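Service request form, structural biology core

Requester: graduate student, group of Dr. S.
Request type: structure prediction, single chain
Budget code: on file
Notes: please return the result as structure tokens.

Sequence provided:
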Amino acid sequence: MLFKRKTKKSPMARKLITVSDMMSIPSEQYRTIRANIKFSQPNQDVKTILVTSSIAGEGKSTNAANIGVVFSQEGKRVLIIDADMRKPTLHHTFYLDNIFGLSSVLSRQSTIEDVIQETFVEGVDIISSGPIPPNPTELLASETLTALLVEVKVRYDMIIIDAPPLLFLSDAQILSNKCDGTLLIVNTGTVGKAAVVKSKSILTISKANILGVILNNFKINGSTYEQYYGKE
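Core staff response, request fulfilled:
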């Protein structure tokens, strides 16, 4: 039986358009992303999805949160893990504390039950990053993380993992090899083509299963929203 720490529920959190305006164009795009993820791997059970980007500031954490929400809206039990143990933000998005979290489990100071937090979104739980450790890369490469993923895959229908950017750090590269699939966030006007090509190369070398790309802040006919592109 899973015991979760109870947290005060907030009436709304920042950047969760899939909660604040379910009928908006961005919300519909997130539902499209959800459908495309399922159709992209018809013969494979994709339960752990890594969300990363080339550089910081491309909106990976916002996308990870909203993707988690739309999966919960179709009745799935969702766990979102903040694996960015350098600049974590997901606990702010859901207005949760970050006293204990992923780093606490990976350093064997806490159990999974200690760090899972309920959110105000029905069906969505969070493992925040926890205290920033001196050795995040080593922790993510550990067998403890592998065992954690095995355990939460039994408990949840979908696990969304928010990872640090790919360039300059090896964290996401390590994680991509441990997950069933990877989504690459590309923010229009923020990152150059060369950086995106390099990121794809890093994921390919890591033998990551690249599900596709989310083109963030792409403008069509005066509207700004997320657009999903699958693999060629």
